[in-house]
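Structure tokens please, single chain.
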Amino acid sequence: MEAKQTNLNKQNKKGFKVPNAYIIVIGIMVFVSILTYIIPAGQYSEITTASGTTVLDPNSFKYVKQNGITLWQFFTSFYEGLQKNQAIIFFLFLLGGYFKIIIDTKAVDGFISLLIDKLGNKVLIVIPILMLVMSLLGDAGVLINPVVAFIPIGILLANRLKLDPICAVAVTFVAAYQGFSTTQICGPTLQTAQAIAELPILSGFGYRFVIWAIIFIVTAVYTMRYAKKVSKDPQNSIIYGEYELMEVKEEHITKFEAKHGIIMLIMLVGFGIYSYGAVKYSWGMDYMAAIFFIVGVSGGIVGGLNGDQIVKSFVEGCKEMCFSAMLMGCAAAISILLTEGSILHTITHSFALFLQNFPSYISAPLMYVANVIVNFFVSSGSGQAVVVMPIMTPLSDLVGVSRQLAVCAYQFGDGLSNCIFPTNGTMMACIALAGVKYDKWLKWILPLFVIWSVIIMIALTIGVMIGIS
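Here you go.
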């Protein structure tokens, strides 16, 4: 498998190379700074609602004196961006560390291996159950980048059921990202966006849960239909003749033990307590960080990790979050430049004038489409939240779409498109590890993405009509 991976890496180097996300963000910052000398400066007045939320007065827009960004403002914006989002950045570091402790206990690996062992070759049972587990872990934010490590488990399943590597990626990566995309609780994306939009943390839980359930069922059925066709006749595989089922050595498979069950139970209880508290008592990120400090450390102890190993896992988890956390700060600098250059409100006003040509139930789906486009360039979910929500929040106020639905448009547009865009490094790593070429992957995933998008746009339209807030 290692030799095949090396060959795949060599092949990928010859193909399309996407610039580093930091390069893209810095490029956007330079572009925005130039725009502050081109786009007329403008300003809305702010008003405070009865609930204490600050919104823009839609009738107050006026042009003001041009205020182009200086070179010094450009350089200081990096620090100001980090400072502006320090609470969210610290939260991301902590959560990454706590989840890394759980992952290093191998509890999740063992649990999934147990499912495969117990369900054997019952394709119509094992696939939806395994996808459900992966979806829930994605929903919780546990398996986003780490999902790459679960591709060998998907390959093991494909071997046993006589399926192709596309199925291996579908039951692991796609299922996890489906859960992540429609999450009701994920801190780095949903909670970050809600904090920027000044919404109660985890508000809109029921609406998102219904969408998660619908998208999950559609994804599972789509995958099972394809798996049945391949199982019946291998020539039905999109990559027929281009693969050999890879052998996964026994020593690479984690056997499920009693301690793994206890750790999974601890994690489940932690999520349950936090979800209840967030909905009932409006607990925020501080409560989640505290609860998962307990979950991570206690899970590590039950998993047999000593103090040094727990600390090492925690630090490694923080390191893994460094790229996304620092990117959030850089992305926030874009909003700072737009604000200091006095063109944020002008851009918002222009979008509002465009969207006001449509009823609000059309504006919400258009917001989703806009976020899909943005995600091609800014593939970090937390980074995109910081880039788009400062614009989407006032824009939603102006066009009659609730802030909750604006967050949903960002969330769904960011998450689901991660399964099709080559700018998502995790997806590219997963299909490379499974030996699936990008063009063949796109042939399989694109129809599913279209189905997802139709469902999402209908759901957003219904959300406007029933008054989701």
